[in-house]
Amino acid sequence: MPIVTVSMKEFFRLLGEELSEDELSSLLEYTKVNLESYDPDEGEMEFEITADRMDLVAMEGLIRLIKGLTERELGLPRYPMERRAFQVRVTERVSKVRPYVVAAVVRGVDLTTEESLISLIEAQEKIHDTLGRKRRRVSIGLHDFSKIVPPITYDARPADEVSFVPLGEYAEMTAREVLEQTDKGREYAHLIENPGNLVPLILDARGEILSLPPIINSELTRLTPGVRDLFIDVTGTDLRAISYTLEIITSALGERGGRIHTLEVVYPDRTIETPKPEPDQLVVSGDFVRRMVGAPLDPDEMIHQLRRARLDASAEGELLRVLIPGFRADFLHPVDVAEEVATTYGLNNLGYELPLNVMTVGRRHPREKVSSLVRTLMIGLGYQEVLNYVMTSKSFLFASVGRRERPVVEVANPVSENYSVLRDSLIPGLLHFLSANTHAKYPQRVFEVGDVVVVDETEETRARDERRVAAAYADYSVGFEDIYSHLKALTDNSGMEVSLSPHSEGPFLDGRCARVAIDGQDSGVMGEVNPDVLLRLGITVPVAMFEIRLPIKEG
Questions:
Q1: 307 and 263 housed in the same domain
Q2: Count of CB atoms within 10 A of residue 394's CB?
Q3: Nearest CA-CA partner of 266 in 90, 29, 63, 466
Q4: Contact 173/163 with Cβ under 8 angstroms?
Q5: pLDDT of 9-59, one tens digit each?
Q6: How far apart are the C-alpha atoms of 15 and 72, rounded to whole Å?
Q7: Number of neighbours of residue 132 by Cβ within 10 angstroms
Q8: Please, which pLDDT band fits residue 416 given cuts at 50, 70 and 90?
Q9: Cα–Cα distances in Å, from 333 out to 16, 278, 304, 338?
Q10: Which domain holds residue 153?
Q11: CB within 8 Å of 378: residues ≥ 6 apart
């Protein structure tokens, strides 16, 4: 979970009052935020933020929440807004490089102190590292709007044909030189690699380059203390994620007195207005909230608690109509409303009751016992654990890693094509992890213990979960024998008996692949990865892998 460090001086200046450590901790009991440290000597505080409240990585989001808890300000924040100030035009070319952009202008922002500017930039980087997946999914550009002439164009052009002065430099450089010679360029150039050597660019009406996302901004629009008007661009591979990010940043600047100007983003096939000018709505039954919370709250009390959480609500009999601002992307279901009421009401105020006619003793599930043992053994063998998403895409599972396509569990109404199916193997995730880390030194040994979902027509749900372990060993000289020795060490120390039989299956090399049986039961596969697959992924060293189903003894 993200840790947010804030200046006490700037925090209490914006809040309008100073709070002691005890006072602040008491207020945070009505949130999911923890106060990790309160250090007057250093003049800093640290907060632990849950992953579903990314709006709180900005100091201004924390202040907005505290104002609601103290009832100094209740309900939905209303920031001054002007609609459709100008256009951001998106060309067809950029869709093949980094397809999505949203943007806004915020005027009259209070960024008069150095601490205020540092806070904004730290929130930007925290979002890059978490929600942004190290800038791959989301990257934010912050610019001094006084140096810009609208309208704006988001385009892609050959890296050798454009030049500008990158942030922190003094001489003009071509985009290719930026990618090859600057620290940020070398770190993030892999995010925009494409066959045409195009780079995404944000330009103003004069053709001045404002940014080369997600790499670096131009020195032209550098932010300095005292800047009042900002242009914000957010680019990425997921339109929903970048829209959410823009809401977080613009609302934080709104807390600093900024007037938000929405922009028209004109794509070749559609036009959208960003940020969203109106909140979302969710209709919830009051009885549902009572049952979920476990307290006899009437609609007026529920509305009061939601307003303390900086939402708005109205009652129509037993129905609550809840207004949700754009910076709260964690509301997906009525149960989220019930959770917000319970949290703000105070979990410690709900009391408890013992379940009737149930006498049980809690203990760890057998699956977790086996998984824990396997993790310990793999770490002992020199492997590093990674975690990948269960939800993914067919192209990620099959074509990209040379696996033959087979039936998988598909999501009926996916939010994104990238998360449209459930994985049936851990192998693709490990190969893509190696592909994204070719800059790290070798040998690389990584493993994952996790669940996959396989189609099984004999089950009532026509699918079943399996807990598996997979490992990948990448080095300049790695073969079948190396990965087998590690599999044998794992099974021997787990009390399992392993045997192999010849097999042929992608992504493995024919003649260097085997089926794995554990205690006489077919359980997985192992082998050397086909060099053609490795080259397609940009991996230039041999890789050997195994994946087996963990035997779980119930009881």
A1: no
A2: 15
A3: 90
A4: yes
A5: 999 999 999 999 999 999 999 998 999 999 999 999 999 998 889 999 999
A6: 10
A7: 24
A8: confident
A9: 35, 19, 20, 9
A10: 81-274
A11: 385, 447, 449, 469, 471, 490
Residue 364: other Cβ atoms inside 10 A: 9
| Together in a domain, 532 and 485 | yes
391, β-bridge pairs: 422
Beta bridge partners of 34: 48
| Residue (of 327, 267, 389, 444) closest to 62 by Cα position | 327
Distances (CA, A) of 242 to 92, 99, 141, 160: 19, 11, 12, 28
Kindly tell me the sign of the dihedral angle through the C-alpha atoms of 33, 324, 132, 255: negative
Together in a domain, 316 and 379:
no
**Beta-bridge partner residues of 144:** 230
Residues 439 and 391 in one domain: yes
For 54, phi then psi, to 5°, come to -65, -15
Assign 3-state DSSP to the chain and report helix, strand, coil percentages, each to 5: 30, 30, 40
Q: Which letter, b or e, does each residue of 164-190 get, where b requires 16 or more Cβ atoms within 10 Å of its Cβ?
A: bbbbebeeebbbbbbbeebebbeebbe
Provide the whole-model pTM: 0.70
CA distance 302 to 306: 6
Per DSSP, the residues of 39-91 read ETTTTEEEEE--TT-GGGGSHHHHHHHHHHHTTSS-SS----EE---SEEEE-
| Cβ neighbourhood burial of 51 (10 Å; 0-12, 13-18, 19+) | exposed
- H or E element at residue 400: none
Mean pLDDT is lowest, of 93-107, 337-351, 370-384, for: 337-351
Structural domain ending residue among the three candidates 324, 349, 374: 349
Q: Which amino acid is at 25?
A: S
What does the alpha-carbon distance between residue 111 and residue 224 come to, in Å, rounded to a whole number? 9
Provide the domain count of the chain: 4
Please name the amino acid found at residue 403: R
Q: Are the beta carbons of 482 and 546 closer than 8 angstroms?
A: no
Distance CA 218, CA 216 (A): 7
Q: Which amino acid is at 246?
A: L
Q: Identify the helix (H) or strand (E) that includes residue 283.
A: strand 280-285
Domain boundary among 349, 376, 399: 349
- Give 21's contacts (C-beta < 8 A, 6+ positions apart): 35, 38
Burial per residue of 13-44, b for 16 or more beta-carbon CB atoms within 10 angstroms, e otherwise: bbbeeebeeeebeebbebbbbebeebeeeeee
Torsion of CA 435, 436, 439, 441, to 10 degrees: -70
Degrees to nearest 5, angle at CA 314 with 309 and 318 = 110
